[in-house]
Fold these 2 entries.
Entry 1:
Amino acid sequence: MAKVLIFNICLVLILSGVESCFIPGALYVVVPNRVENGHYIATVEVADCDTQSMHFTLEDLDFIISNNGEIQSTKTVLVPIAGRTFSVWVQDNSGPKSEMVVHLVRSELPKKESTEFLKRSKRRWSPPPFNILENDKGPYPREIEKIVSDSEAKQEVYYTLSGHGVDQHPVGVFSLDKYSGMLSVHKSVDREEFPSFTLTTRVFNRNTNAETDLPLDINILVDDVNDNAPTFKDALQFTVLEQSAEGEVVGKVNAVDRDLERSLHVKIKYSLTTGSDWFIIHPETGVITTKTRNLDRETQEKHLVTVVIKDMDGAANGLSNTGTATITVGDINDNAPTFKESAYAATVKENEGEKLILRIPVQDKDLVNTPNWKAKFAITKGNENGNFRIDTDPNTNEGLLYVAKPLDFEKNSKVNLEIQARNEAELKGTTDPWVSVPVVVSVVDEDEGPEFSAPVVRFTVKENLPNGTVIGSYTAVDPETKSSNGIMYYKLSDPGSWIDVDKFNGELKVANTIDRESPFVQNGIYNITMKAVDAKAKTGTGTVILIVEDVNDNVPTIPTSELVVCEKQGQLGSVLVVAEDNDQSPFSAPFSFSLPKDHDGEWSLTRFNDTATTLQQLKELPTGTYEVPVEVTDLQGAGKKQTAKVRICQCRNGACPAKERSMSLGPLALLAMLLPLALLLLLGLLLAFFCVTKRDKQEVEYGGDSGGILLKSNTEAPGDEVDSSLINVPIAGVDSAVKGSVKGLNTGWMGNMSTSTMGGLGTADNGMYNTGVVTSEMNDFYSSQYDQYGTQKFGGTLQGSGVNYDNRFIAQDSSYIQNWNTNGRYLQQRLVYFGEEEDGRYAGDLMHSYGFEGVGSEAGSVGCCSEFGNDDNLDFVNTLGPKFKTLGEVCRKT
């Protein structure tokens, strides 16, 4: 321990580089964990110090040091386990400050007050923190201290060490001899990166490996050396106003140092190497102040000042850095604007108004386009009647002199004005006054027209006054005769045609409804321009201002456009309804919103603000448009029931999808729609023509006797039923279905039903066929199984029946097949393609409906389409009776 203290003392001596007042570099003091107020800590020993000029400083406010070096606490202090550190400085007139770091080591043992350096006992298992010097160049390894456990006296033990610096980052800095307990350091450490290390030491029995003592945390503090130069923290940009007083603060130079806080290594001294004629910097705080009050922006706008920062409180061995500060001199209004000429003159005709008659230029040395430079002009004399006004040209900074109202030559032929130039900002830092210049305005005589009693007259009226109401009168006089005789009055402008003017006496009456909400009224003011004409046709003009007072003639309204409510799963939607009222307060907002007493309970209203309410769903509603009645009244209770159109939809990107547009048909579209109807009518006429045209008789090829049976056709009245005994059911026991036709053949053929215009094959019912139907699905079956002549396209077997069918017929029972073909598939197929062999077209009467032929008919009702070609065997038709023959003749060609 003594070696470490001597090393620290020598280090401080080397770093200081002086032979003046000196104190040791470190002092370790064992104190209790709670240091009471006024507790004596230690006495600092010094060497080579002038006791007359020597003085101590201590910046830790928890402690105080007297002139004799005694340190005491100023309040109750709790010392942490890791201890506490603070610095003490001593200085005399012979040299710079010398620093000592005081380490308070916490211990529960009674404190031994001593001014000597602490000596560690090797037999203590709870040693104080150890110290190493940062960036020490070695040689390494270097022993620090020996760690000894009390259990070593009775047992053979070994030690282990862990923590940051051993087996954690940074690895390999420290090591502990396993058997001797010697703690060593192996490399240099940067205090700014690792200010301290906490290592854990454990002790074990060499034979049993059992832990013989509690683990011990060892604190290693890294002592600081001055290895970091101070740096500038902020940009060196400052501004100070010109003519500032001495000592005016310009700005503060902020510098930082990474070395140990509160040590001399971070004690920075500030100085200037340039600019010291104008500015001063405080050596300890870095605050720059003015040295003179003669700063003038118009002479020098910017000053570049070199700033030097140096640690060790500016000592010769301190580290330093240099920066350039830019100090901008701010402008003040210390220069008044001046005129280029000593006097100005202008000429104007009488009765001319709103005319620019003179431009007055000025000069100003202050900063351009600032309030210190921008000029303001004032007419200080000669404008008692308000005939003139003067403005500033924002681009040129010139004064613009106008005639505000016409001049009268008879009253004054010459006007003497005095115009003063000022700045927007007040003068500062100068005793010069604002400058004025004389301006002579000469008035040119002209023949004058009548003059109104006042250039502008005001009348207050309420809106909606009845027509004919007298508002007042506006008259003029001849400036020469001072009389109104012979003067006529007219309106030059009356935007709303609200006023009638009596041309003889200038009386004003209401001609149309006065509406304050009219666009002609601005801020409640309505302007009328009047003209007076004398006997010489000379004119004069004047203005009538109507101040229109509001009445409650408008009710609040809500928008007529649709309000969108986006439908959300599990949520009830709402929308904001905003009302508007053209009236002004107190005849408008705040509005009152309510639902009628008889509302449907699907919506509710909640106040949002003075002009809006929230319309909220009370239950889930389907998408669509809803008309919600809402009563809206203004502050005076005036209002009406209105309808809010609300559209509920599934929104896309926050909006309802666009509605389908309705389309109107033009002439060409209508013609395109009527053309198919015309073609259909023409087709009907062609069918009728072909139906009554005789055709050559076609014979139907047939392989057997059909029995002369025709099924009953559709009738419009009751007819004869066919004897069911004459109808033979096709193949019994056929179970399976054929696509589109046969649905089950166990008890007869069951097909899908579709009404036909000709009697054909029906469905089986209790072993009998119902007449009058032919299925459309039969056609699908036939077209897939047979060609246009009834010939089978391919051979096969009806599934589940065992019945084979070949080229033209199903070969099993000829009597069954004859009835099947004649009354069903064959006849239907032949009718579809009837006439194709002869002329390549369909017959004109494919299907027709015929009514009841009479009671007792043996043949029933048949159509002309029953005619077959000459090539077919139709001998069975001869057995059908006389009525069939008669009907057959109708369809034959004559």
Entry 2:
Amino acid sequence: MSAAFASDDPLVALRQDPAGIAPERALVFVTAGSVANFAKVAREAGLEVFSEEELETLEDYPEGFQPAGDAASLARTLYATIPTIESFQQMLSLWRAHQRGENAPHGAAPWWGVFDLLLELRPWGPQDRLGDTARAVIEDRLAFRAGEDPISIEFEIWPTANAEKRANWRGELEQRVAARDGSILDRSSIAEDGFIYEALLVELPCLAVREMLANPADIDGLATLEGVQFILPQTIGQAIPDGPDAAGEDRAVDGAFDPDAPIRAALLDGTPVAAHRSLDGGVVIEDMHDLVRLSPVARRYHATAMASLILRGDLQADGTPLTDTRLISVPVLIDLENGAETAGNRLFVDVVHTTLMRLIGTDEPVAPEVFVVNFSIGVRDSHFSGRISALARLMDWWAAKEGLLFVISAGNVGHLALPGTTTMDFENAAIIDRRATVRGAMRDGIFNRTLLAPAESLNGLTVGALSLDYANHTPPQQAGILKLEEDGEFVPQMTSALGLGSRRSIKPDLVEAGGCLEVRAMPQGTDVSLRAMQSSRTGLVAASPPGQDATQKSRGTSPAAALVTRSLLRAAAALTGEDGPYEGLELSRRQNALLTRALAVNAARWPQDALDLYDEEKGRLGSKQHLRAKEEVCRHFGHGYLDGGLMRESPESGVTMVGLGTIRKDGAQVFRMPVPPSLSGEKLPRSMRVTLAWFSPVNPSRAQYRLAALEAVAVNEADDEDDGRWGFDMTPDGLDANIIKRGSVWSKRLKNRIQTIPEFGEDADIPIRVQCRDASGGGLNQDEDILYAIAVTLQVEAEVQFDIHQEIEQTLRVRAQA
């Protein structure tokens, strides 16, 4: 930098060094730990910050950098910026002053904080654009292809707000692609307030891609282009049904759909058989992308099953149609012989964005009343490893901007290698021992079994699958076909992708029945490979092509997500229906989405199998590792198994209250929950659960991706401090306070274990304060209104002669009249 600025024309001098740092080339700062308000510091110096991420810690740290305290490793943070020539000059001047030991000039003190912690300064290079995970997937897709065979690659351009820069970078990329006999399959340029996405889908000869992988630092290559942020394998959305082998018998259904009912849910999937008797009148197909003609009717398994489960549930255990809503289906996948996939010539992020724009985002939306979107699709080879995918970021932006609730399947992963055992030993083992073996193997291979994009979405409702049928199929036992749970146990499917989410937030959010999973142990070298079976004997019963009454058995996280969507729609109907808390009122999209999201998490419970896993993990990790043990349970169960009935009705001997509020940064609101008079002086076991749901604004450029964090605290009226007991002398039960603070749902459960006798007078209440803080260290706008929903369930866990539901309802009605 010094040599360049000493020349007559520093801009030319910098550009003459292709490996050097130049304006419009992303500049990477790597610091020892995080720098408070780095984005603000950089912006004031003329740098545009595009990425902030926490890197793996170093044990062999540079000389002179001693980690704080007794830490044995050095935490690092990467900041990617794009500077101007003026900002280069300013940084160089400040750096020289810092090196001379001078005090920081007025307003430049934050740069001293950067320089004190600076470990590395370099251009954004090939190792950043082409990460190890993307490289491995591309290499796998190249296998067995000839040099001239084409392969599709995605290039993401730096998401600057400067449209001219993006266009120039895109043009440079197109020229280099053409020089390698490549072609442009698709372009996307999305420039919304809060979400920018510029990308190209290109088709290149395999030989050109192999050259890029072999020599990524080639100055004239694809991986050294200044405007490229990431080089990725094509994003292939997929939905893999059990297929024709799982087809069941024909089954007639009762009840019809209301042809005039509003469309309140959208299904993004393949194409369903809308004329199937289970779906006829309940599904409207909107062929926005001209894909229906590409999907033969006989192959439309996945979307048909999802629509069936949303509208009627399990056809054998339930079958009741939703009568107050219809479903709009927008095909975004093509149904093929082995499942549904994205079109090979389209950028999937652009397809999803275009779909949502036409559904609700234009002046004449196709389905303006939609509040929930079912997305039982996973992106192939895209296991979450810390970086939030563009598709998940898009969904988070839509949720925050428009109040859409995305229900996303966690994803299904393949076979599981079981080292150190034999097929015979595994088959002969007791179920509890099989499960212990499986859990150990899943821990060892956790990085290959994480969530599939976009399940890491912060604002979405991510659903994992239990190996559980709703109908009692009781199949005959066959040799070599095994189960990993006893009848009646609530155990996640072996193939259900595992959390956690971004910054160790709770993902999946909850689990639902995904069909009983049968497995077979097969030799694989010196190990055993455990594989899920395609079977027509177990699973959730859903509509199937091609006949009008045909059914199939569906298993996995896709049908589990569809059942959660059904529960959300039924809860929304209960909110405004007869005797509902909002009876006769029209709720907005965002209100419906947040209330049902809060109710879903509030109605989720860790089953006994989750508690058993917690005890098992405490034994494995050590008695003092309660937090890690609970995180391990959350990987499998999230907040727990969804009890759909508790979303629509108060529990026995209890009451559920809901509310809505709007809050800003550093603001607070107080809800006053009436205390049932009959509980005064009674020594009764009781529990209370408080759940908050909001759609947090996000900033993709920050490691602290989430901007808004909400929580509820009990208020001691005397000194306005958290008394931790919600007025009933109760103690926290369930998830650790540190875990529940990480996402955009906050849910806390308390329980009275010692049965302290509460004493209070008439008209007593518990003030519950909801408060909002900036979770990003400066990114949340002080003037931004954040709508949230609150759900509170108070329950007496014993038989009583009084009705606390009626007592609280009466108190609330009196207040409303007053």
